[in-house]
Amino acid sequence: MGLAGCPPPPPPPPPNNNNNNNKPSGHKSACVPNSTERRRDELSEEINNLREVVIRQSEENSNLQSQVQKLTEENSTLREQVEPTPEDDEDDIELQGAAAAAVPSTQTEEDCPEEDLPEKFDGNPDMLAAFMSQCQTFMERSTRDFSLDRVRVCFVTSMMTGRAARWASAKLERAHYLMHNYPAFMMELKHIFEDPQRREAAKRKIRRLRQGMGSVIDYSNAFQMIAQDLDWNEPALIDQYHEGLSDHIQEELSRLEVAKSLSALIGQCIHIERRLVRAAAAAARKPRSPPRALVLAHHHHHHDPTEPVGGARMRLTQEEKERRRKLNLCLYCGNGGHYADNCPAKASKSSPAGNSPAPL
């Protein structure tokens, strides 16, 4: 009973469980890992953010380096354009000289007036020959120095406008060697702007051209005018010019040294013609020799069978009379130019008593 009246004993402790035994400590450590993990996550996120910032900065630096490299290359290119090579520098100097020649200053207006400049060429084929001739004449007569091909090319291009100027600019940019070769540049100019039919017509004209009875100067002027429309070389022009000369000029040329240029050949022909003209004028000034009849008359006069012998004139033979009549000679003295009625020999031998008896 007593036992029955006693309170019941306390319940036995739960079985030993590691999880349960560690439960209080488990609750205590649960807060610590959460804070550490959160901090770790925060640090990891910051690291990732920094890494992204560094990556972006690296990319920006790389872009900046590319831009700097590109700017450096562009700067080098610009320097090459702004600071030309010595050869280009010479071209610039000559371009300035050509521009000065194209637009004369007030100090040289008298030497090179503006109206003497060639007319601007716009690409019209009909004006090409005149333009090329005017440019050549201007450069030959100008007091400026056009001895360099580059200066000559620059001057010609400065006289172009419109389509012709655009062609020259593009052509010289693609083929810079033409700047240093004036004949080649002018040949290119002719090939582009001259009329092909005009060239064929010029070929026909120059092959038909002959000096004839005209002067060498007139023939040479006509020849050179036609030759402007041709693309023949110097030997071909020389051969054609020689073929059209008169025979007497060609004969004189055969005794001289062969000319090496057309201008030299023209000079030779002009000199030959002037020499022949002077010789003809000198021959015209000389007294003419008497006609053959007079010479015969004088020759026979010395053996005139009618010459007086001992003061008396001999009778003419019938043969002598016939001869004098045929030659229209005087029957008295045997000379020509008069007849016996007015023979001067009678007057010189006349006496106060009268004339000598006429021959029978």
TrEMBL record:
Matching InterPro entries: Retrotrans_gag_dom, RTL1-rel, Znf_CCHC, Znf_CCHC_sf
Keywords carried by this UniProt record: Metal-binding, Zinc, Zinc-finger
Biased composition (Basic and acidic residues): 71-82
Region of interest: Disordered: 1-43, 56-92
Annotated Polar residues bias: 60-70
GO cellular component: cytosol
A molecular function (GO) term: nucleic acid binding
Name by which UniProt lists this protein: Paternally expressed 10
Lineage: Eukaryota, Metazoa, Chordata, Craniata, Vertebrata
